[in-house]
Amino acid sequence: MSAATQPVGRRVSPRAAGDFLKNNPIYVAIALLVIVTSVVEPKFLTLNNFDNIVRQFGVLIFAALGMTFVIMAGFLDLSIGGIISLVAVVTVTLIDPIGQGPAILVGLAVGLACGLLNSILIVASGALTQAESLFITFGMSLVYGAVALMYVQGVTQFLTYSESDISIFEALNSGQIGFLSVATVVFLVCLAILAVIEKRTYMGRSVVLTGGNKVAARLAGIPISRTIVMIYAISGLLSAIGAIVLISRVTLADPTMGTPYMTQAILAVVVGGTALIGGRGSVLWTVAGAFLLILLNNCLNLLGVSSYVQFMIWGVVLIAVIWLDAVKETRVSG
Amino acid sequence: MNRKLATVAALAAVAILVGACGGGASPSAGKPKLTFVAQIDNPSQGFSWKMYQKNAEKYGFEVSVCDNKNDVQQQTTCINDAVAAGAKAIAINPKDEMGYVPATKAAMEKGVVVCLSMVPPAADAIDGSTCSVSVDDILGGQTAAEAIMAFFPDGATGVEIGGQGGHVAANNRHEGFSKGIEGKNIEVLDYQNPTAWDTAEAQAIAEDMITKYGDQIQFVFCHWDNGATGVINALKAVNEPWAEDVLIIGVDGNKVGFQQVESWKNYISIAQNAETITSKVMEQSMLWIKKDPAAVKANIIPFDIINKETIGNFTAPEW
């Protein structure tokens, strides 16, 4: 984000603009996607489709926002798939016994608890490398997924079967506050809080320093263990919020429904420009990354690209992103 | 600290193992073993496993399950492990059309009966199983085509949302559907598969198709009832009269399929009865073990058509 540091009021030179685009190819990718798709499929640039893209933005963005801090600190969290599934089934099954508000609070508490448990395991086992955190959280994803399956015996739970009031879920799905959907407002509030934590707090700086060099951070007195607890707690909580937005949208809770988000969230963060090895990133960049992924999916569907070709394109995007990230890292460290 | 943690973890693992193995003789000791190999987190297969457990006593089996985790290698491991554990029969809902065949052939050479559960063998994999019990998914696709033609005798346009890309059932349902509408006045505007049997993905695909084709969509053939829930959500979000009239055809006949028949204006669920299928697998497996001449290699269980007229004739399953 080099252009963001330009002094206010100074004209941006073509060279600075070029540098900005070179360092942030995501904006070039978004612009290209928009141009190509709108030429081939005129219905792409319609209000209906914009509304459509915003609706699809929901779950992925929450999971990806939580993942951003984890990756910035040089870790990974593969447990979010299991957490989303577990929170979803717990929340839906509790609506009738305790009411929708308490059910949502329990769901959020479950997500937070899962995140805290992840962090405790990582800290207690001394797993301070990205690979170690990857395996621990992957293991925990299997555990949370299995608990979700056992909890509902593999049976999908439907929001529409609830005999109690589900107005909060309906509002999250289709309610409006002014011209914004309720889910968008929730997203903006979360984004604002995370951006403040990232930019304005000691904890936010600790995340970046921990990701940059854990040994140096420890020597500098950065509370690494506390940082780990915080990033996984945030990831768990945001996964839980994502799960609640997801069940509001699809009106059901499937004990495996979180699985796709495990990799998509990481992809959104890295596509946005956060360094996979940690030390550099921003929740704002992640918003752009998630937007690009949703846009790509939407464009491919509108262009009628075969599902099998779409799988390949996702694979190519993943490889390209990791490659570009590696090139960028070499440039930064070189 | 780490050593303490490792000790606690090891003790917990031992306790879990001991608990899982259990002690003493089980009530089903002495009965032939049947191992069910499937992706257990797929709701239909999770329910099938419950049905195997429910009716095992009736058909004289001790049943166990191995989750293929949607992975061909794991599927092979499950088959090999079942043989090593002394299973007399393996009931398998394969992840793919051919990948299971080398392992099941090896099992059959050792005298194990292999019966496909819910899917028929692919043309090139006939010798990869002893028997099969299935609805015919190709027939299921054709049934969907016939239902659409009956609903729109003057022709119609619509879309197809397939099951998990590459899945046997999804391929067969698409093949049957394509054959069923061939040369007829039914036009499929678009066909997409999600990466998994995932409602959120089906909903996103439906939303994109609605954006592109709008009221040209008169029908949606979605390969599974839970996916059709996403289609209904997408159509409701349009909030226009044409969307309420769209005919939706789902497959499975599960609990939500029944509910959607009742709640959506035009909904048809093409139902496969998991209890009938799993019972038939156990019945046939036992006949093959006993080398009974009544054993049949290919057993087809007909689909049930659940719509507003017929729904009263069926009991909604619990899954």
Give an overview of the whole structure.
- Chain A has 334 residues and is mainly alpha-helical.
- Chain A has one domain: Orthogonal Bundle (ABC transporter involved in vitamin B12 uptake, BtuC).
- Chain A contains 14 helices and 4 strands.
- Chain A has a two-stranded antiparallel ribbon with strand order 1-4. A two-stranded antiparallel sheet of chain A has the order 2-3.
- Chain B is an alpha/beta fold.
- Chain B folds into 2 domains: 135 residues, Response regulator (Rossmann fold), CATH 3.40.50.2300; 135 residues, Response regulator (Rossmann fold, 3-Layer(aba) Sandwich), CATH 3.40.50.2300.
- In chain B, the strands form 2 sheets. A 6-stranded parallel β-sheet of chain B has the order 2-1-3-4-5-11, with helices on both faces. In chain B, strands 7-6-8-9-10-12 form a 6-stranded mixed β-sheet, sandwiched between helices.
- In chain B, strand 6, helix 6 and strand 7 form a beta-alpha-beta unit.
- In chain B, helix 2 packs across helix 11, helix 3 packs parallel to helix 4 and helix 5 packs parallel to helix 6.
- The longest helix of chain B has 20 residues.
- Classes of the chains: A mainly alpha (334), B alpha/beta (319).
- Chains A and B meet through helix 3, helix 11, helix 13 and helix 14 of A and helix 2, helix 7, helix 8 and helix 10 of B.
In short:
The complex is a heterodimer of chains A (334) and B (319). With 334 residues, chain A is an all-alpha fold.
Topology record:
The complex is a heterodimer of chains A (334) and B (319).
Chain A (H helix, E strand, L loop, with lengths): L13 H10 L1 H16 L6 H26 L7 H19 L1 H26 L4 H23 L4 E2 L8 H8 L1 E2 L2 E2 H19 L1 H11 L1 H6 L4 H27 L1 E2 L5 H14 L10 H20 L4 H27 L1
Antiparallel strand pairs in A: 1-4, 2-3
Helix pairs in contact in A: 1-2, 2-13, 3-8, 3-9, 3-11, 3-12, 3-13, 4-5, 4-6, 4-11, 4-12, 5-6, 5-11, 7-11, 8-9, 9-11, 12-13
Chain B lengths: L1 H20 L11 E6 L4 H17 L2 E6 L4 H13 L4 E4 L8 H9 L3 E6 L12 E4 L2 H15 L4 E6 L6 H14 L4 E7 L6 H15 L5 E4 L2 H14 L2 H4 L2 E6 L2 H9 L3 E5 L2 H16 L8 E3 L3 E3 L13
Parallel strand pairs in B: 1-2, 1-3, 3-4, 4-5, 5-11, 6-7, 6-8, 8-9, 9-10
Antiparallel strand pairs in B: 10-12
